[in-house]
Amino acid sequence: MVFAGLPQMMKFHSGKETFHLGTSSDASAGVEQDSDLLHIVHVTAEMAPIAKVGGLGDVVTGLGRACLNRGHKVGVMIPFYECIPKHCINELALIKTYNSYHDGNWVACNAYRGEVSGVPVILIEPSNHFFKGKNIYGGSYNELDAYLFFSRACLEWMQVNGTQPDIIHVHEWQTGALPLFYWDMYHFLSLQKPRIVLTIHNMEHYGECRQEQLSKFGLDGSAYATEDKAVDDRTVGHNPERLSLLKGGIVYSNAIVTVSPTYLKETLCSGWLSGALMRNRDKYSGILNGIDTEMWNPATDVYLPAKFDASKTEGKRICKQFVQRGLGLPFQGIKHGICVADQIPLVVCITRLVAQKGLHLITHAIKQVEELGGQMVVLGRASDDRVEREFEGLAELHNKGSNIRILLMYSEELSHMLYAAADMVLVPSMYEPCGLAQMIGMRYGAVPIVRKTGGLADTVFDMDDQSHAEIANGFVFEGIDEGSLNCALGRAFSYYQEKPKEWKAIVQKVMRIDNSWNNTAGKYIEIYNP
After folding, report:
1. pLDDT in tens, 97-111
2. CA distances from 141 to 10, 83, 220, 298 (A)
3. Rounded Cα–Cα distance for residues 350 and 439 (Å)
4. Half-sphere CA count of 295, side-chain side, radius 13 A
């Protein structure tokens, strides 16, 4: 939805202007080059900005660019979803037509080459119905079959093309079967060189698979139905027992990474995959994600009405007033001799509206922020119809008022402006493997209010914790109840309203924190090198 009167710059665009494709050559200036250079191929279901649903797409693009900037050869392989905006891919061209196997037949595939955000990309387009539809996920085809096909088709392309990367980096359950295809099939054919690295971005998605489904793609599914391979431990003793592609990827990959050190600890202690992870603990690492500091840079951001940085923050106030004006929120006037804009904090929550993100805390925050006299903007979409209806009701209730705006959409442009406008960014997740919102928010001078879990615990440290005053950078709560959130919000509001000089210092401090992909890439390079 877009509000009547929203300035033209703030309206959602689906055309070319939404995507700005940078090049690695500009970014590599000043980045130290690695001496032992590698050829790295990411095989993934998402890549920002052309095929982005969540943080996975940002990670693939950000890590790919960072490794390119360090001198490595990097490519990304993704499905050529029907919904991908082709005009957002530079130099898109068909480079090969070849066949890959599915259910007794060889299916023709087109391989296209292009460049996205400076990163070379290969897009695989099967001639059957896979990856057709208006969205990345949720098409009328069987998604598990489609990603099994894609995983083998990527290896088949490497074989027919004579490509021998040093590293094949797979992500999530969608490409969890690729290590099985590699070690039990293609390694015995022509692919001898690659090592396989698996990054698990969210342990809640397992890739549940029937044995006969895997068999349709040329492997004997029954051979993997053991505890030490790919059986879904939750189904042992049931009829039928099932496989987990994510577990198979854990067992068959040379190295496993998850996206924060705290999430690694959490996954070793809870969840049915903890046993498999413990058995493979020696190859399991936790590396905190980074953010793309070129894409997310308030000093150069093309979406902002005013630029700013940590030393000159005046532009942030302009961005706040611009967003307030566009959304119909009060932004001017004098109250007790003080500018209204300086006394009313703007809280922003940019998120997928799913249970993981703490929906009950988001809905409570809407009421609590209003009671505290602040303003709040929620930007996000729900995949569940019930959740969508609940937030539509909240939008109907609040959007006509003067303090709350609920925007049930996703807009890259608007998200940039909201981060720039925000005084605080709220991330009240039930669990959060890494989280990007808190890091992006800090990059734009929004002080984070977060629940202590996963990557949030690794990046945000409480302002009232005197034992870690030197790294304090936000407001943290541990409980999953509304009272715990109230306490954190209350402390943040008091700090903002009663200590303006100290607040400005916090804003400058969080903007200077280096959460760039270059730091993260260095740790991945250590994993890539055996």
Report:
1. 999 999 999 999 999
2. 35, 14, 23, 41
3. 12
4. 31
